[in-house]
Amino acid sequence: MAELTMTDVRKSYGPVSALTGVDLRAPEGSLTAVLGPSGCGKTTLLRCVAGFERVDAGAITVADRTVAGPGTHVPPHRRRVAVVPQEGALFPHLSVAANVAYGLDRPARRSGRVEEVLALVGLAGYGARMPHQLSGGQQQRVAVARALAPRPPLVLLDEPFSALDAALRGGLRRDVREALRADGATGILVTHDQGEALSMADQVAVMRAGVIVQAGAPAAVYRDPVDAWVANFLGEAVLLPATVAGNAAQSALGPLALAAATTAGGHVTVLVRPEQIRLDRPGATGVPGVVLRQDFHGHDALVVIGLADDVTVTARVLDAVPAVAIGDRVSLTVVGPVRAFAA
């Protein structure tokens, strides 16, 4: 196992700054998801850790060994860092077992390691098959097995599930996470999928414009984002202007309890998650509104409600079939405290 540390890492391509001072610590044996929009520097971060790019400034250490820094650039093949690309990139002329064994020396190939890692990724007994005989999800499992086979201290996963359909992604995410944990590897997952990051990772690092703006446990980052941008990026968010009065904020949803004291001035932006909004019959205690739209997702539905002054909010209804229809009048209340940001 190995801890990864990045300290003030910078990387530019000509006039374009890809990394503008990245600080990140990934504890050994953990899975850290680096999450951010396209173009924020996620892939460059991964390439710098792998050694495919030289950093312009800063330092990268893996298992207390500096692999990049002032006057230091350890080449990729000497870093003992494995990379799982977006698509498995298997050798088409080699069997599954031969693909997995590719980076192993002869004693390791005879040790049963190939069969061991295939079992870890749920492909026990598939060694004799050829890549073209596998589904896309199975090919990605082989790619993960090949990465784990040499027992690298660090495994980098570059959006490995993006090419798969939704039905495959969920199961593969769980199996890959368990395989990493069972093998004791530290993992870095680069993704733009919020659900993937929040469900898989021990730590989520949110990236914007070449820098990590927040890192922490998934629940903590979701519930206590550092700013409105992170709040909105990490899932459905209702962001409303409000005025602070003591320990509460007055908004279009009425008075809202604040999760923490704010040093912002009288005017703030408050974050309400859709699951905090409860719908009730018209006339009940709460703020009146009208149902404008429903987006049904099977396990829940997002209900868009219009309030006074053309304000719209979104509530998450956990019933399989929401008991409201477009045009219905409802009353809204907010459950639990909310987060406030400077306006």
| Widest beta sheet: strand line-up | 7-8-9-3-10-11
> Roughly what percent helix?
10-25%
Shape: globular
List how many beta strands DSSP finds.
Answer: 21
In short:
The protein is of the alpha+beta class.
Secondary structure elements and pairings:
Elements (H helix, E strand, L loop, with lengths): L3 E10 L2 E11 L4 E5 L6 H9 L6 E6 L2 E5 L2 E2 L7 E4 L11 H6 L4 H5 L2 H8 L15 H13 L5 E5 L7 H18 L2 E6 L2 H7 L2 E6 L2 E6 L1 H6 L4 H6 L4 E8 L2 E4 L2 E4 L9 E6 L4 E4 L6 E10 L4 E6 L5 E6 L11 E6 L4 E4 L1
Parallel strand pairs: 3-9, 3-10, 7-8, 8-9
Antiparallel strand pairs: 1-2, 1-4, 4-5, 5-6, 10-11, 12-13, 12-15, 13-14, 15-21, 16-20, 17-18, 17-20, 18-19
Helix pairs in contact: 4-5, 5-6
What are the main properties of this structure?
343 residues, six-stranded mixed sheet, 9 helices, 23% helix, globular
3D structure, described in words:
This protein is α+β, with helices and mostly antiparallel strands and 343 residues long. It contains nine helices and 21 strands. The strands form four sheets. The protein has a six-stranded mixed β-sheet with strand order 7-8-9-3-10-11, sandwiched between helices. A hairpin with a 2-residue loop joins β4 (57-62) and β5. α4 crosses α5 (136-148) and α5 (136-148) packs parallel to α6. The radius of gyration is 24 Å and the shape is globular. The two termini are 44 Å apart. 36% of the residues are buried. The mean pLDDT is 90. This is ABC transporter ATP-binding protein. Residues 4-234 form the ABC transporter domain. GO terms for molecular function: ATP binding. Keywords: ATP-binding, Cell membrane, Ion transport, Iron, Iron transport, Membrane, Nucleotide-binding, Transport.
